[in-house]
Structures are given as structure tokens and as C-alpha cells.
Design a protein that fits this description.
Strand content of chain A: 15-25%
Order of helices and strands of chain B: HHHHHHHH
Largest sheet of chain A: 5 strands, mixed
Shape of chain B: globular
Strand order of the largest sheet of chain A: 4-1-5-12-6
Largest interface: A-B, 38 and 32 residues
Low-confidence stretches of chain B: none
Number of helices of chain B: 8
Oligomer: heterodimer
Radius of gyration of chain A: 21 Å
Radius of gyration of chain B: 20 Å
Helix content of chain B: over 70%
Structural class of chain B: mainly alpha
Number of strands of chain A: 12
Helix content of chain A: 25-40%
Distance between the termini of chain B: 56 Å
Low-confidence stretches of chain A: 17-34
Chain lengths: ~300, ~220
């Protein structure tokens, strides 16, 4: 009986470890709120979007609802005690809102995930989505994209002391983790036949599997991995992206006026403009390395 | 993802779900029956163990048991295979079996208690031991009465396989996530289609139980 009790206790302890390990691994460093002040962006004052139904709705609500994931350190992450999410996507959202004449106090952040982004934009539950949202033709059928403001690519997060993976060519015989259903996961499954794929419902589980050595690498967009690498000791990004994932600002379909306004805002934030985008990048990542100027596609 | 690719994608998903379902069904029925025997056993310690199991497992969320299996067992160096996919499959089957067995045990036990006490007394009177009276007298009658509630538990189990996609299993929800990522333009149809797949599978399962019920049921 005593043995049974100790057995149960040890299993419980291990399970608790696994659980807390998962929670912890997702948390970001304090880099985004320590030291420098959050940059403030010039809020446009002369915005006239009379023909924009989205803008009309925003004015009625008195605020803009911006959808984003809240679980990606460095991009958009909201801890349990945080009031607002933090990260590069959040800053881009602020710049986009500012270009519509809306200050940060007029933004309401809505937690969205892959399956509900398009429906939320279609039925008006959000006015905008800024969430590592890759522009593609299927999505363009039902929503519109401003941007791209960043061109991400699939990369690999590995342990610091791992010299066996230097590019995607070294993945044969390796075990790689990614989020179930994500484009990087589907890419591995379809095009890397000799690589074993492990999929979970969120990145934190992949991270703990990488740290415990269950998998050799965690693969997803490089900018996401950089966030994890910055927030966790002993991990590095391979730094040889092998796909192209242009991130856009998701907008309701057909609202060309609003799309043009957001595009203008993104372009104005570029280096030839007022440099807000770069300010945002250095504020979030504490370095100018890796910054990309938005290359807006006005389709 | 074209329509044919979508169908292939969901076909793989259905296959994955059925693989988890079939083995879980077999294991949970065996374990559930064994636990039910423990719970009606004349030996107090067996009854206690059966009761303890049911009270712990039935009062814990299934997803937590999956967590224990998928992330706790590797810490204890319990592995079923060097292939992570196969490993995760057995973790999922183990967790779902342990979970479902707690409910199946109670269904069986309720069936056993519907058999009038006179039956087991008569069995004892003609010299059958506990095990024999269970096997030849009690369980054959009990099983017939438990088929409808058992069907509900099994259908719930089939639906519970959907949480295993969060733990490296490629089943219907996994297929749905693949489809949504590639086809942002038809998210709602994909969701409805996924629901339809589960409804069809569970409907067929319900029909199967109906057939078994017709063959086996006795009216008292």
C-alpha cells in the first residue's frame, strides 16, 4: 500500500512537472517591458474613410477590434497577468491603427487562432487581424491583405550544442516538432519523407519536447523561433529559412479604402518614411538585426 | 488543397481515428469488465481497489490523463517504440482506455446489480463458485441490460479521440487543422464537414449497437 501511495505521488509530481514546464516554456523574457519605453507612433489626424464600412463600424464601436494569437513570445504574447499582449505584431497593429487615426487606447485586442481568423473578419467580430498571417490566394478569396510587412520563412530551432543540423538538408533521420495543421508541419510531412514529424496543439509543447530531447528540432516561421530562442536559454535558430511566408494585415474583403490606408501607414513607417517600423522592431527584439522594411503589395 | 486532396486528407484522418478507437474499445472493455468484477468481489480489498480506481479516473478530466500519459510516462522512461508517432499512439490509447474503463466498469456494475440476488444465491446453492456464478449466471444476463448505456459510453469515447490530436496523433481533428490552414476560404464548410464525419461515424456505431441490442436483449 505504501508503495502504491509513493508510486502515485511520484507520477503526480512528474505530471505536475510536465504541466508547469509547459506553462513556463511559453513565457517570454522581460525584454519587452524592461529598459526602454514603448515607442509612440504618430496618430494620423486627417483620416477620411467615408466609403469604408469597416471604419463606420469602428466609429460606432468607438474602438478598433484587432485579432491576434496571444501565445507567441516576441510576436504577440499575453501572460495570464498581462492586460495587453506584447510583441512585434502588437506594435505593427498599433502602427496600422495609428494610420487610421486611432491611438493605442482605441484598440481592443481579440484572441484569435488559425480556424477563426477568416470567419471573424467575415462576420465583423474583428476589424483587423495582425497575427503572423501569411498572405495566400485561398485566403484572399474571402478577406483582403494589407502589407506584407514582414517576410518570414520556415526555419529550425535546435539546442545550442547541436552541430548536426546546419540547414534543411540535415533533417533526414531527425525528429522534428511543429504545431498540428500548420504550414511548416504540412511541409515536413509532404516534402521531408525521411524526417519524423511530431505535432502538438501548441508551440510550448514542442519547446518542452526539444528541451527534453524528445525531438531534435522545432520548426516553424523563423521570427516565431527567434522569439522562443530569446526567451529560453540554450537554444538557437539555424538561420537558413527555406520557405517564404509573407505576413500581411488581414482586413475585411472589399474594403479597398481601408486597405490603402493601412498600406500607406505601413509604408510611412518604413525607413524612407518616419521609421516607426524599425523603432518597433528594435524595441521588441533589442536589436536592428533582422529588420525588414515593409514591401507593400497593392493588388 | 483541392477537393480530392481534401478527401484524401480526411480519409487519412478517419483511418487514424479508427485505429485509436478500435484498440481503445478492446482494452477498455477488458479493463472495465475486470474492474467491475473487482467492485462486486466478495474480497473487501478488491472492492476497495476497484472503487479507488473509479473514483480517481472518473473524476479526472480525460485531457489530464492524456497529459500524464504523453508527458509523464516519458519522464518515467516508459516508451512503447522508438518511433515518436507509434509511441504517441500507444500513449493516447492507454490514456483513453484507462479513462473509458472507469465508466465501462460502472456500466457493467449497474448491469450486475440488475440481476436479482436470487440468481446468485441459486448459483451458490447448486455449488458454483464466485467466478463460475459470474461467468455462467450473472454476466450473461448483466451484459444484455447494459448494451444501451454501454453504447453511450463508447460513442463518448469515439468523440474523445478528438483530443489526441493535441498529443501528436493524426486523426480527424488533425486533418481538419491541415485543411483549415490551407483553405482559409472555406473554414466554415470544413468545420461542418468535420462535424458530419463524426456524426456519420457515431451514427453507424449507434446502429451497430442497436443490432447487438436486438439480438441480445431480454425482456424481464
Amino acid at each position: 500500500m505504501k508503495k502504491l501511495v509513493t508510486g502515485i505521488l511520484s507520477i503526480t509530481a512528474v505530471g505536475a512537472l510536465a504541466l508547469t514546464g509547459c506553462g513556463k516554456s511559453g513565457s517570454p523574457t522581460d525584454s519587452a517591458d524592461g529598459g526602454t519605453e514603448a515607442p509612440e507612433y504618430t496618430v494620423a489626424s486627417d483620416v477620411k474613410l467615408d466609403g469604408s464600412p469597416t471604419m463606420k463600424r469602428i466609429e460606432q464601436n468607438g474602438k478598433i477590434k484587432i485579432g491576434m494569437a496571444m501565445d507567441s513570445p516576441g510576436l504577440s504574447y499575453k501572460g495570464t497577468t498581462d492586460k495587453e499582449p506584447k510583441g512585434y505584431n502588437v506594435e505593427v497593429a498599433k502602427i496600422a491603427a495609428a494610420s487610421l487615426g486611432l491611438g493605442p487606447d482605441k484598440i481592443e485586442y481579440v484572441d484569435t487562432s488559425t480556424p477563426n481568423r477568416e470567419p471573424f473578419l467575415q462576420n465583423g467580430q474583428v476589424d483587423m487581424v495582425v497575427s503572423s498571417y501569411t498572405i495566400n490566394d485561398e485566403r484572399k478569396k474571402v478577406i483582403d491583405f494589407a502589407g506584407p510587412y514582414y517576410n518570414a520563412g520556415q526555419d529550425l530551432l535546435i539546442k545550442d550544442d547541436d552541430d548536426s543540423i546546419k540547414s534543411k538538408g540535415d533533417l533526414a533521420g531527425k525528429t522534428v516538432c511543429s504545431t498540428a495543421g500548420s504550414t511548416p508541419a504540412q511541409n515536413i510531412k509532404a516534402n521531408f519523407k525521411e524526417t519524423k514529424l511530431v505535432t502538438y496543439d501548441n508551440g510550448s509543447k514542442c519547446l518542452s519536447d526539444l528541451q527534453s530531447g524528445n525531438v531534435d528540432a522545432y520548426t516553424t516561421d523563423d521570427i516565431v523561433l527567434r522569439g522562443y530562442a530569446a526567451a529560453n536559454e540554450g537554444l538557437k535558430v539555424v538561420g537558413d529559412p527555406f520557405t517564404e511566408e509573407p505576413y500581411g494585415v488581414g482586413l475585411p474583403k472589399g474594403d479597398k479604402e481601408m486597405r490603402e490606408a493601412v498600406n500607406d501607414g505601413l509604408e510611412k513607417g518604413g525607413e524612407s518614411g518616419n521609421g516607426d517600423m524599425k523603432k518597433a522592431w528594435s524595441y521588441v527584439f533589442k536589436t536592428e538585426d533582422g529588420y525588414q522594411d515593409p514591401k507593400v503589395d497593392r493588388y | 488543397m483541392s477537393l480530392s486532396q481534401l478527401i484524401v486528407n480526411f480519409g487519412h484522418g478517419i483511418l487514424g481515428t479508427l485505429q485509436i478507437f478500435v484498440l481503445t474499445l478492446i482494452l477498455s472493455l477488458i479493463l472495465g469488465a475486470f474492474l467491475a468484477v473487482l467492485r462486486v468481489s466478495p474480497v473487501p480489498i478488491f472492492r476497495f481497489i476497484g472503487g479507488l480506481y473509479v473514483n480517481i479516473i472518473r473524476n479526472t478530466p480525460g485531457v489530464l490523463i492524456l497529459f500524464f500519459c504523453a508527458f509523464g510516462l516519458p519522464y518515467l522512461a516508459v516508451r512503447f517504440s522508438s518511433d515518436p508517432g507509434v509511441n504517441s499512439y500507444f500513449y493516447a490509447v492507454l490514456a483513453l482506455s484507462l479513462y473509458t474503463a472507469g465508466f465501462i466498469c460502472e456500466v457493467f456494475r449497474s448491469g450486475i446489480s440488475t440481476v436479482p440476488l436470487g440468481q446468485s444465491e441459486a448459483a451458490r446453492a447448486i455449488g458454483l463458485r464466485f467466478g463460475q456464478s459470474l461467468r455462467f449466471i450473472i454476466l450473461p444476463q448483466a451484459i444484455r441490460t447494459v448494451i444501451p448505456p454501454l453504447a453511450s459510453v463508447i460513442i463518448t469515447m469515439l468523440k474523445s479521440t478528438s483530443i489526441t490530436s493535441a498529443f501528436n496523433n493524426q486523426e480527424i481533428i488533425f486533418a481538419m487543422q491541415n485543411a483549415i490552414e490551407k483553405r482559409g476560404d472555406i473554414v466554415v464548410p470544413i468545420l461542418i464537414g468535420t462535424a458530419a464525419v463524426y456524426i456519420v461515424l457515431n451514427f453507424l456505431l449507434g446502429r451497430a449497437f442497436k443490432l447487438i441490442e436486438k439480438k441480445a436483449v431480454i425482456l424481464r
